[in-house]
Design a protein that fits this description.
The complex is a heterodimer of chains A (340) and B (117). Chain A has 8 helices and 15 strands. Chain A is α+β, with helices and mostly antiparallel strands and 340 residues long. In chain A, the strands form 4 sheets. Chain A has a 9-stranded mixed beta sheet with strand order 5-4-6-9-1-10-15-14-13, sandwiched between helices. A two-stranded antiparallel sheet of chain A has the order 2-3. Chain A has a two-stranded antiparallel ribbon with strand order 7-8. In chain A, helix 3 links the parallel strand 4 and strand 5. Chain A is globular. The two termini of chain A are 24 Å apart. The relative contact order of chain A is 0.18. By secondary structure, chain B is mostly helical. Classes of the chains: A alpha+beta (340), B mainly alpha (117). Chains A and B meet through helix 5 and helix 6 of A and helix 2 of B.
Chain lengths: 340, 117
Amino acid sequence: MTPQVAENGAFPVAVRSAAWYLPERELPVPGLPELGSLGESERRTCLALGVETVRADDGLSSADLAEGAAREALEKAGVTARDLGALIVVEPRAPETLLSSEATRLQHLLGADQAITFTVGGLGCVSITPALMAARGLMCADGDLGDVLVVHGSKPVATGRYRHPVTVNGDGGQALLLSRRGPVRLLDIVQETNGAHWDLFHVKYRDRPTDEWQEECRDPSTYSFRLAMETRGRMSALLSGLLERNGLKQGDVRGYVSQNLSMAGFTFSEESLGIEIMSVCRENLRRHGHLGPNDVFLNLYTAIERGELAEGDRAVLINVSPVAAWSALLAEIGPQETAA
Amino acid sequence: MSDRSVNDGSTDDGTVNGGTVSDGSSNEIIQEVTDFLTAALRRPVGPDDDYFALGLADSLFALELVTFVESRFSLTVEVEDLDLDSFRTANRITRFVQRKTGTPEFTEASPEFTETP
């Protein structure tokens, strides 16, 4: 089969089905255990982020969350794991054990015996982007390849869920079943990184017990100034470039969704890029906190379910990571009845 | 470009000060910046107050600050300009504005503003 490549060189893929697996247990942010040990300023910042609750279950691993979402996505599409052409796991923030493979663990759990299986990551919540690019590349290179499942289980690395001064992490799994046709077409993706910020946020672990692991910012001023302003410039250029190379203007985009970090983060994106972030993002932030690489598609599908995006609409998914990485994805909504 | 960025050797009232912009021009930039900072941070801000070190600045504030500097002084803050040391205090912002707009460094008439970063 000859791959269908668009005029601009992009090879569109589509999301055939998508699913999320969220733990039932809801944890109110004011009740986070770590709040008691924070200074007054940090505590105030945490409570002002706009996250009211997160889903949390310490009994579920990243693989459990990813598996739950994967099974539902496959079931929705009527696809068996054995028929998958590839299984791409967006790496967990921390593996359960070193040296072992989180990717083949999921392959085994799902029974995706024939799937080309590997892990993609290294870019924080932007890691969903290279995973989609890898899937697109595989499908473009091999016209006979079956559907590709991209999965991620999002859990914080440390015991505490608050990442000062950025967000509160929740638990949640996501699975996207990618195919050549489907109700949500991924038309184009762009991505940039700046390695100068590779360790701006980090968790030291080698010399301390796990209950002392903590998400730390090396330099809060770099985060709130240099990276913020670099994000303004990078994302503006990425967005305009993405639209231009697809022959679109800002008015051709029905909605913008982004990752869910804080209410102020949404305002920053809106003011720095001159766009309006869809209201579902703020609602998902309030209810679920930050789900890493899973945020943008959760927001997109929430908007679709509510009818805020309909057939023919285009949406742009904006992702920014303090690693630092930036990406923008152009999606087009198709007829939703073909989902099953 | 704003009036204040034009290096014509005269002050706003038309007087000439040895071929350079008078300290009044620098002071006016500082005053405008401190007024902005005081309003944005909702507390009095002095010319040498480092609001980043004081933990008063977040990303939204940084965006407002840079947008204010760009629009008020008709300049563009490029990626290579993103040195926090240029934006830590009102005095440093003033020096940055003068550098970007081609106006001279602070004059001897205003020694309180002659420190270098």
